[in-house]
Amino acid sequence: MVEFCPECGNLLRKKACRCGYTQYETTTTKIPLLQVWNPPHPNIIYCKLTATPYDTLKSMLKKGNYPAKLKEVKEKLKKKLYSCLDCVYYDETLFLCKFRNKYITKDSICKTFEPFENI
Q1: Which of 36, 59, 51 has its CA nearest to residue 113?
Q2: How far apart are CA 109 and CA 87, in angstroms?
Q3: Using 50, 70 and 90 to split pLDDT, how confident is the model at 19?
């Protein structure tokens, strides 16, 4: 069956369109969900949370300045409190990682993890 995008009228291939429209039927079919635990380094998560350049953080750590927020990030990673539920790219209703375009569990985390948590 040939399908067309309701937004722009282009031919849909693999349920995605160049205009950004996506149509996933995850509620009607059972999809295998992947379990991934490959978290990024705590320094990278800290930089994303605080909008600090990585080079600035490295120079701070070399000088002996260890931010309290970085300790908090490390503890959350150890206790597995960070997961895809806290990620910008995760769609909870579809169990879909929009960045990787894969169906994953809520407990998963990968290198592209980008938290939406405010400081």
Answers
A1: 36
A2: 9
A3: low
CA distance 20 to 5: 10
Residue in 91, 111, 86 with CA at minimum distance from that of residue 102 = 91
100 Cβ partners below 8 Å, 6+ apart?
Answer: 89, 110, 112
Asked if residues 89 and 62 have their Cβ atoms less than 8 Å apart, the reply is: no
**What integer best gives the mean pLDDT of the chain?**
80
Query: Mind listing the pLDDT tens digit for each residue in 49-98?
Result: 999 999 999 999 999 999 999 999 999 999 999 999 889 999 888 888 98
CB neighbours of residue 24 within 10 Å: 16
* DSSP class of 98: T
Q: Which helix (H) or strand (E) holds 48?
A: helix 42-50
What is the pTM assigned to this prediction?
0.68
The pair of three-digit structure tokens given for residue 50, joined into one six-digit string: 């605080």
Residues in the chain: 119
